[in-house]
Amino acid sequence: MTAPFDKLRGAPFDRLRTALAADPRPRTLGFDRTPRGERAAAVLMLFTRDTDPALTFVTRAETLRNHAGQVALPGGAVDPGDIDATDTALREADEEIGLNRRSVSLLGQLPPLWVPASRFDVTTVVATWPGDATLAPMDPAETGSVERFTISELTDPANRVTARHPVGFTGPAFAMGEVFIWGLTAHLVDWVLDLAGWARHWDIDRVVDIPVQFLRD
């Protein structure tokens, strides 16, 4: 499905860049996500510079102890030698999927959010790249696959659902064929779609249980 709106024509990232520069108010995502200062991490939200930009995701390896098979943004914990959150996100993307940082242009950052499961304060670095190189798992023991979905796919109401966790948690999710994106990753993508002015109305009352293969702790 092609982009049904003019928001992706011309300079599709201008509104998003402006919104990020304005230091958007952090979302609560159901509870207080104020950074705790215990541990720090960064993830990379990487869009191609196309008329209908595509966003890169990774699927965690099936052999991992934690969150095996789940879909996430490239990223990880801050290392002592990292300069800042951007350095962390780009280093991790290189290590995970072979992204050449010289091809990346920064748009800005989302405010850091606290993740209770890991106790990380996670900063989302938003950027673009040409999308003209192949990205693939660098370490199959860590990354299972690389996925890419366009904005028109992510905003298609047919692909939007409310995910329901067995413990009662609900939140925005993306049902992209065999791929199910939920949790913090889905919240971050949903947030950026709103900031960029790309979001479309979708049925939040369409609630589905998180598929078992994407639910493992």
UniProtKB/TrEMBL annotation:
InterPro entries: CoAse, NUDIX_hydrolase-like_dom_sf, NUDIX_hydrolase_dom. This is CoA pyrophosphatase. It comes from Tessaracoccus lacteus. It comes from the Bacteria. Keywords: Hydrolase, Magnesium, Manganese, Metal-binding. The lineage of its organism: Bacteria, Bacillati, Actinomycetota, Actinomycetes, Propionibacteriales. SUPFAM superfamilies: Nudix. The keyword Hydrolase applies. Its EC number is 3.6.1.55.
